Amino acid sequence: MSAAAAITRHHPLLLIPSPFPRTARACAPPATRSIRPTTSLRVSSPTNRSPAASTSPAPARETIFFDGGAHSGDLIANLVFGFTLLWLPLTIAAVSRAFFLRYRFTNLRVSVISGLTGNDRSDFGYDVIEDVKVVPRLVGEWGDIVISLKDGTKVDLRSVPKFREIAQYCMKMKEEKRVEREVVKAKRPRGVKGGEGVWTL
């Protein structure tokens, strides 16, 4: 055999077994998994809402009918008579009313504001009024308004200017509140208990 033939002879491929098992996933690139934050959204809707509650009218805007203190004539008259020792307590009360007391009547409530800084305040609505009476003072220039509430409380407003007009306004607003309650009661669907949205089938 010539040397050229020995060079061109192909030797068979020698396969040496590997000690590590070959798997199909060994050379595969690692799979990348996209991790997204999950957010759970809970939407709850009340099931006991009555139709009357969804169609309730917007609250009325508060308008002032009268806002002021005691009549100035009350202070002047008590200062004139204050020179006598017997009238002195009434004069001190008139000065206190003139500087530290204020009445406010709106379409929603009656407010009595008192105190040095006006922090003492009492409010009540017209729907709790039972009766209104007036007591004229000094030939009717000013007067007292006595408001009786349904729980038996009596609110005495002293030396109020335009006391007759204010008393008539209180009775008018009381009647309007009574009519509003009756209208709301008539429009309430049957089976609704106290506006809680409980329907009886």
Describe, in plain words, how this protein is organized in 3D.
The protein has 201 residues and is an alpha+beta fold. It is 28% helix and 23% strand. The chain has 5 helices and 7 strands; from the N terminus they run ααβααββββββα. It has a 4-stranded antiparallel beta sheet with strand order 1-2-3-4. A 3-stranded antiparallel beta sheet has the order 5-6-7, with helices on one face. Strand 6 and strand 7 form a beta hairpin. Helix 3 runs antiparallel to helix 4. The chain is elongated, with a radius of gyration of 44 Å. The termini are far apart. The relative contact order is 0.12.
Observed structural traits:
201 residues; three-stranded antiparallel β-sheet; 5 helices; alpha+beta; 28% helix
- What's the total count of β strands? 7
Lateral arrangement of strands in the main beta sheet: 1-2-3-4
Which range best describes the helical content: under 10%, 10-25%, 25-40%, 40-55%, 55-70% or over 70%? 25-40%
Percentage of residues in DSSP E strands: 15-25%
- State the end-to-end distance: 112 Å
Individual helix count? 5
Largest sheet: number of strands, sense, barrel closure: 4 strands, antiparallel
Mean pLDDT, rounded to whole units? 76
Low-confidence stretches: 1-11, 23-28, 195-201
Oligomer: single chain
What is the CA-atom radius of gyration, in angstroms?
44 Å
Morphology call: elongated
The helix/strand series, from N terminus to C terminus, equals: HHEHHEEEEEEH
Structural class: alpha+beta
